[in-house]
Amino acid sequence: MTRKNLVIVGDFNTDVSNANSTATSNPMGKKLLATLYSHRCKNVISNPTRVTQSTKSTIDLAIVNNPASKVSNSGVLDLSIADHKTIFVTYKMKTKSPGVSIKRVRNYRGLDEKSLQEDLHDVPWWVTSLFDDIDDVTHAWELLFKDVLDTHIPTRIAKIRKESLPWVTGEIRKEMNKRYKLLRKCDGTRNTSAFWEEYKRTRNKVTKMLREAESIFWLNQFKKAKNAKDFWNTVTEVMNLHQKHKQIGPMQHSSSSELITSKTGKAELINDFFVNIGKNLADKHHHREHKAQTTDLSDFYNRVTPTISDLSTCKLRLASDLNKLKDGAY
After folding, report:
1. Which pick of 75, 175, 223, 278 has the fewest CB atoms within 10 Å?
2. What is the DSSP letter of 328?
3. 74: helix, strand or coil
4. pLDDT in tens, 24-56
5. Residue 178, SS3?
């Protein structure tokens, strides 16, 4: 199995409740578990899913290929609406972390507007009139203005998120900023122990708020799903299964050694390979195994579905070969 996250659920009509024991009363269950093991898969439902007055069986299964790293909980729910109990699997979902970019922004904290206005008034703007070219005038004006701004409104480094999480509200961001400020005040000494305790309380509060906000957001997204397609699109978005398609590089034609780079040419080359793979294998097999035969069987091998006449001819030839083998002709 090459899928990263494989989940198969349903009624398999094969009891696996005692398949791990040494008893031989459940051969189909043993065979099913052996097949799953050979494909590196595992059933995570261990409790009986169908209970009658005389029997208990585990036939409703949930099969996954990475239970240790992805499945956090699984079990059976008795909803009393059918003779089969409901099974569930809790999957660990990894939230996509949006990237951040570093940008220099103006820091307006501590700005003295009156002092800024006075300095702007004292700037020798007349210097810009000494230039004839409009580009030189603009450049000189920007230098004078930027010099005043850098003095009163210095720049600082800020992290800008490329894609903000939709469930992070202003209230949560306020608590996150508070958490960051408290952490900045801690230096690991006893003098800042009070800040450290307050930081831990704020950190736990932020974690709880983020989890609750994300749960409410995805619950509302699932409620908006009007059909199966919308539902599974939401599941794909939750589990972050969007994958980028890798570009196929140049391909070389086997017969002409031509290097193919266009998408149409590569598609035709791949299509031609799979269309003729059966015929090419049949020709190789016929050439290797039947060099001594004079009868041309290429048409028989090239067809995907043989006719009744072909089957009859093959049957007669096989019977003749068996009789020769019995008589010692070979």
Report:
1. 223
2. T
3. strand
4. 467 888 888 888 888 888 888 888 888 888 888
5. helix
